[in-house]
Amino acid sequence: MDESPGDEHVAFKQWAESQGVLIKGITPARFPGRRLGMVATRAIKENEIILSVPVAVMLTIDSIPSSFVRSFPAGTSIHGILAAFLTQGNSDLLSKWDTWRRVWPSWQEFEDSMPVFWPEQLRVSNSEFQKTRDGGGSSPVLLPPSISGRWNSLKKRQLKVNYEMRYQDLLRQQEKRLKDAWAHVITAYPETDWENFAHHWSIINSRSFYYISPGKEEPEDWNDAIAMVPFADYFNHADDAACDVKFDGRKYTFMATKSYEKGEEVYMSYGSHSNDFLLVEYGFCLDENPSDGIFLDDIILKALTMEEKKELAAQECFGNYEITSAGPNANTTLVACLKYMRREDWLNYVSGKSQRGFDARKTTALICAWVDVYLEESRASIGIIQDQYNAASSDSEKSIREKMDVALSRWKQIQEICENAVRVMRV
């Protein structure tokens, strides 16, 4: 670990403190093979406040002149307006945050790490944002189905029903947010440079915190409840981080919920997210992630009749059939039971009235068979990536090979999830 991140970071810390940011016992530091993070500069006690950031120094929608906000079409996201302000806003107003902006990640870092900016042969999705070269979407898929929306070993059937997916079809959703924001911005500012805007959009996307303007109701889209919090954006993510984060409308407060030794990295949690979500939104995967999992929706829904789908929807257990290394979630168990139980018994089982007709072995066999389909997909995709990796041998393909490494590592994690889940269920 290099405890000297650079002069620009030292200057930023000094600026933050001059603006009323309270920094106690922590500082940014470099970690080998990883991004900057936060490290303890001394022993930190449990329940000690280590950082406090007043709203006045944050970058929020309320920091932007109302005349600038009004220049955008109705429906423009706050995310898009913030990115546009950083790209096209008044330089005198933006100068307040110049010292902060100098420590932000470069555009190259986002191009390298976020799949939304990867070359199309690596980032195939089922959206209209950027079609594959053959126009038909038949190229091999390197990213998992929860990201790309596509499979290599399974022919996905188009569903005639919509439902709210959790951690699925992630790339298409992100592409739509970016595409819509860009369309609104160039309506107001046609001369906007795409790369500059995309860079600022990514900065906000990966480093924002929860924020709602005083007196405003919570928006329908949580992506519009955002702001940037200086210095707090150094924290790296851990699912079970020992850091309590609070916002009271006046300031953000970060409190250590365990003691730290000098030199120990201090994390905060970005939320309980799968590695597919973390890769799409932040450009990284965790080696150990208790919230990681896969979704069997595409596999299971193909095997259901319309009547079964209607029954699942009526009982509010349609879709989001998740498997973790610990096994299936409740919805997955219920849909397996639906395949063999009498309807009356199944309804009583769903409501918790009776377990009559439930057969643990039949349930396990069905779910394991569905997981085996995903396991075959992981093996097929690992083989495809390894073949393409070996073909990309020149120095000019170094960047491509690095991205393939990320995809390959993710598929190996998925393979392990499948194998562990089957092992647990068959015990």
From TrEMBL:
Pfam families: SET. This is SET domain-containing protein. InterPro entries: SET_dom (IPR001214), SET_dom_sf (IPR046341), SETD3_SETD6_MTase (IPR050600), SETD4_SET (IPR044429). One of its GO terms (molecular function) is protein-lysine N-methyltransferase activity. Residues 24-271 form the SET domain. PROSITE patterns: SET (PS50280). It comes from the Eukaryota.
